[in-house]
Amino acid sequence: MNRFILLITCTALPFFSFSQNTTVYKCVIKGVPTFSQTPCSKDAEQITLKEINIIEAYKSPTQANNVTDSSVDNFLEVQQIEREISKLLLTLKQTEKTYQEQVKQVSYVTQDQANRLGASSIADAIAKKTAPITSAYESKVTRTQQQIDALRQRKQLLSQIP
User: Fold this and answer.
1) Burial 9-33 (b: 16+ CB within 10 A, else e)
2) What's this model's pTM, rounded to 2 decimal places?
3) Tens of pLDDT, residues 89-106
4) What is the Cα–Cα distance from 107 to 130, expressed in whole angstroms?
5) Residue 23 β-bridge partners
6) Domain coordinates of the chain in residue numbers?
7) pLDDT tens across 38-52, in order?
8) Is 43 helix (H, G, I), strand (E, B) or coil?
9) Nearest Cα to Cα of residue 26 among 44, 8, 11, 41
10) What is d(CA 95, CA 130) in angstroms, rounded to the nearest whole number?
11) For residue 30, is it left (φ>0), alpha (ψ between -120 and 50) or beta?
């Protein structure tokens, strides 16, 4: 039981302040200001040092008003948005490259392949094979561009917030 009381006392002790206002005495001895706990001469100046609550002294005024500084959060979010936009732009470049490769492969159609597709000519067969590729490419580019535009709008909005 004694150990339990001792444990609670030692645990709670740092949360209590036993210090009070402190009195010191200032004397000038041989032209040098000297401070002491006891009067050092008859003309000693008594100085009272008030207890300082360190937590209150260093408390930020924005914390007292429950206002948070979101500029750092906004900066970090803008940086994240820029990274996402860069990734999407790279995706667009890769999509363009893939599209060009697929169109190039389609251009190697022979007359025999065109006949199997039921096309009247090689050009007609190329057009038939290219149409779905172009449609898929344009759809993907449109979606990606919309994502980029939305991210840029969000970035602009965050840049306007102080």
Assistant:
1) eeeeeeeeeeeeeeeebbbeeeeee
2) 0.52
3) 999 999 999 999 999 998
4) 9
5) 48
6) 19-51, 71-160
7) 888 788 888 787 776
8) coil
9) 44
10) 15
11) left
